[in-house]
Amino acid sequence: MTMLKIVTDGAADVPAGWEKEYDIKIIPINIHFGEKTFIQYVDMDFDGFYKEVETNKTFPKTSQPSPHQFAEFYRNNCQKGETILSIHVTSKLSGTYASCVAAAEELKGEYNIIPFDSLGGSMGIAFLCRTARQMERAGKSVDEIVKALEALRGQVQIILTLDTLEFAKRSGRVGTLSAALASVLNVKPIAILENGLVEMVAKVRTRKAALERVVEMGKEKFGNRPVSIGVMHARDIESGKALLEDAKKHFNVKDAHLTDLSISLAINFGPGTVGLILYPAE
Questions:
Q1: pLDDT digits (tens, 9 = 90+) for 30-81
Q2: In this structure, what DSSP letter does residue 56 have?
Q3: 157-280 has which CATH code?
Q4: Boundaries of CATH 3.40.50.10440 in the chain?
C-alpha cells in the first residue's frame, strides 16, 4: 500500500518533532516587507522576522503559496502516483486552500491530491495532521480519514488574546473590530477563530485577566471532556508557559504542547499574542 503523504502550510503551528514523527510536509508562505520578499523557513525564521519587524518601518504582509509553488512542492516531496492529503489554513481568511485546489487540478493524473480546508489555523491544523497520520498507521482508508477530519474540524477551539490591536487593525483579517474597541487604549482583546473566521469576542484590562478569560471560555465549551491542548505565543514565552500551566489545571488533558505562533498569524495579530487550542481527544 502506498503511504499517504500529508502536506500542510506555514500557518500550521506544528510542534517540534512532529514533522519527523508524523511525516508532515510543510509548504512555506511568502512574507513581504515592502519590496523585499522572504520565504518562510527558507530565508526567514522567527528571529529574523521579529528583527525585521523592529527595524523595518514597512508593515509586513503575507501571501499564500501560488499554484505553481504548490505544484513544485508536490513534485519535490512526493512520488508520482502517490495520494497526498493537503490540509490547509481556513479558506475564509487565506487563498492557500484555493492555490492547493488549482495545483491539484493541474497535477491530476500525476498525483492523487485531496485538498482539505481545516476551517482553522495554528496548532488546530497540526492536530488534524496528526490524527490523519495516526489513522493511516492504524490501517484506515483515506475516505475514513477525511470523514473523521470533517467531523473534528468544527470541534476545534482556538482562542487568542492580543497584546495590541495595531496589527489586527492593519491586517484587516479580524471581523467585528469595532471602532469603539479599536479606540480603547491598553485593552487586551480576546478573539476566537470559529467557522473559519476570526471574531473579537471580549476585551479585558490586564494580561493576567485575559489569560484567565481564555481558559474560562475554553472550559465553557469543553467542560471535562478529554482534550489535547496547544498553546502558542508570538514572542512571549513566559505568558505562553503560564497559560499552559493554568490550562493543565482546568482541563482533562491528554497531551499538551507549546509552540511559536506562525509568522503568518503573528503578522495578523502582532507580537505578544498568546493563544489556546483545544482539540477533542478520544
A1: 999 999 999 988 899 888 999 998 888 888 998 999 999 999 999 999 999 9
A2: -
A3: 3.30.1180.10
A4: 5-29+64-153
